[in-house]
Design goal:
The complex is a heterodimer of chains A (about 100) and B (about 475). With about 100 residues, chain A is mostly helical. Chain A contains three helices and no strands. Chain A is elongated and about 50 Å long. In chain B, strands 1-2 form a two-stranded antiparallel sheet. Classes of the chains: A mainly alpha (about 100), B mainly alpha (about 475). The interface of A and B includes residues 43, 57 and 97 of A.
């Protein structure tokens, strides 16, 4: 049997890759993909913990997360398309109309 | 814990009746919008007010009820009912303020009202959640609706940029939040809040638990906009339509604080010494940065954004104190903050005319000469936000700082008072501009009967609560009687 720690480490690695992607990459579509990675890192945790704790709750949670992620990405892509039509750029560094 | 044989009983459905009314009502709005001719769209606003009133009546019926529904996924208690009533108030006032404004902004669409209600139902689910699943679902339902609302005016440059920034940072925070939930699930083996609290009652300093707490803190921090997770707030508040900004700044903050408090005081209550230090640091940083950054703002929406960041810092004192006094003062603070902040944004909404943004503080020059009533209303809101007696803002801050002193955090209360004095500078600058500057030209305000009604309600409430706070204070005290594991 694969030890639980392997899954947790895998999930931590996926999470960090996602977070680094959000912070480093400038293309908003890549940022969207990185956020999906972060959500999936949480999903790995839920399924692994759920399996080892012998309860179904974590796996149920994953279905909810997948549904929500799909809804979120739909809205996100719609926003990205509207942004691209209006500004002809996907680079977040060029979104400087509202100053930080 | 999810029940093995998930039978939905009528008791479950009664408990979620307000949420059902709001979400079914929102779907109804979308359908009615299809058959309604364009000039009659105002009726959608009135219909949404009727839906809110119906949900309000249902919540009042359940106001003292104490029950768990759907196997503990959903908690109905006076604490959540209090916040739901607050959410109806915030949504209803937002709709009243919006009717004329969204015509001027040319976003007078049926979806506007439907998404407002969807977002409200998400926030309601959040304040009533007894399980991590419902917290996550409620949070996302509210957030996704708000991403859309922020960018509803998609032909303009600023709203779509605001919407994109809000979406990226909002979903980033949701992902961090979810990761924290997964770690909490790993540490306790359950997603149910009270079971998790029981599992943690004896656990000390488990590193996974501390990690979970930090991730959840970051997630909540993003949503209520505390420093250093506040950077999206000024941009989004400035770029989004003002009515949506008003709604975001009050409803989301109030509901998130409600669940923030439930999670931290109930679940992490047993390890409270480990997180109070973090929260005190965040609270002080938030008060300092929010107030100082607000001073230099020229755009009133940005100034109010930084002011709302500062208010999140004050409100966190309630969470740090915890216990009955802290919870009560946080609930009181949120109610009063909802009123005065909506009022301030309401006057900004009036300033928007066709072709005139009216968002600079200098645009308010001489408002008192041209429109004394609007200037007086703004003066009351600014005094209240600064916490000057006899307005409601003073009562709110008084209870909060008193709670801090009572808990032995005298220096935190002193810091809060000193920074409130700093905040008076930028609030009173608005008053000075309105009363002591000459108008640059004639100022026309976008008056409408509904906006007047909303402003009258808010002004009256701000003054009356300031003079006679006893009923509201008594209500908050009753509402927390049944909260379990309050620390």
């Amino acid at each position: 049997m694969v030890p639980l720690s392997y899954y947790v480490i895998l999930s931590a690695i996926v999470f960090v890759i996602g977070l680094a992607g959000v912070l480093i990459r400038r293309n908003i579509v890549i940022i969207l993909l990185s956020i999906e990675l972060m959500l999936n890192a949480a999903n790995i945790n839920f399924v692994a913990f759920s399996h080892y704790a012998e309860t179904i709750v974590g796996q149920v949670f994953v279905f909810f997360v997948m549904t929500v992620a799909a809804a979120e990405v739909t809205v996100g892509l719609a926003i990205v398309i509207a942004l691209y039509r209006r500004r002809a750029t996907l680079n977040v560094e060029e979104l400087t109309l509202l100053k930080w | 814990m999810i029940p093995q044989a998930s039978m939905i009983t009528s008791a479950d459905l009664t408990a979620v009746l307000p949420e059902l009314i709001i979400s079914v009502g929102a779907c109804l709005l979308l359908l009615v919008d299809l058959v309604l001719p364009k000039p009659a769209r105002d009726w959608l606003a009135y219909l949404s007010l009727v839906i809110l009133a119906a949900a309000g009546a249902a919540t009042l019926q359940l106001a003292t009820a104490q029950a768990e529904a759907f196997g503990g996924l959903f908690i109905l208690d006076p604490y959540s009912s209090y916040f739901k009533l607050l959410l109806y108030l915030a949504t209803g006032l937002t709709i009243l303020l919006s009717i004329r404004y969204i015509q001027i902004e040319r976003i007078h669409l049926g979806e506007y009202y439907a998404f407002l209600l969807f977002s409200t139902s998400g926030l309601m689910m959040m304040v009533s959640s007894g399980d991590l699943i419902t917290i996550f679902l409620g949070l996302e339902l509210a957030s996704v609706s708000l991403y859309i609302l922020a960018g509803l005016n998609r032909h303009e440059l600023r709203p779509i940029e605001a919407s994109a920034k809000y979406f990226v940072l909002g979903s980033l925070s949701a992902a961090i939040f979810l990761y924290g939930m997964s770690l909490l699930f790993g540490a306790t083996g359950t997603t149910h809040l009270s079971t998790a609290a029981a599992a943690l009652a004896h656990g000390q300093g488990d590193p996974v638990l501390v990690m979970a707490m930090i991730f959840l803190l970051v997630g909540f921090g993003f949503k209520v906009a505390v420093v250093p997770f506040h950077m999206w707030t000024p941009d989004v508040y400035e770029g989004a339509p003002t009515s949506v900004t008003a709604y975001m700044s009050v409803a989301v903050k109030a509901a998130t604080f409600a669940v923030f408090l439930r999670v931290f005081l109930e679940v992490f209550g047993s390890i409270k010494p480990q997180w109070t230090g973090w929260l005190i640091g965040l609270s002080v940083a938030t008060m300092v940065l929010g107030n100082l950054a607000a001073i230099v703002q020229q755009n009133i929406k940005r100034m109010l954004a930084y002011s709302s960041i500062a208010h999140a810092g004050y409100a966190m004192i309630g969470l740090i104190v915890g216990g009955e006094l802290g919870t009560m003062s946080l609930m009181l603070y949120m109610a009063i903050y909802v009123l005065m902040n909506l009022g301030a944004f309401g006057v900004v909404i009036l300033m928007r005319r066709a072709g005139v943004m009216g968002e600079q503080i200098s645009d308010l020059s001489g408002l008192a000469k041209e429109h004394p009533a609007a200037a007086l209303a703004m003066l009351i809101f600014m005094f209240s936000l600064a916490g000057i007696p006899p307005t409601a803002g003073f009562v709110a801050k008084f209870y909060l700082f008193m709670a801090a002193v009572d808990a032995g955090l005298v220096w935190l209360a002193v810091a809060g008072v000193l920074l409130s004095a700093v905040s008076a500078y930028y609030y009173l600058r608005v008053v000075m501009v309105m009363y002591m500057k000459e108008p640059a030209g004639p100022i026309e305000l976008a008056w409408s009967p509904s906006a007047v009604a909303a402003l009258v309600i808010v002004v009256a409430a701000t003054v009356i609560i300031g003079l006679y706070p006893a009923p509201l204070v008594g209500y908050t005290q009753d509402a927390i009687l049944h909260l379990s594991n309050l620390r």
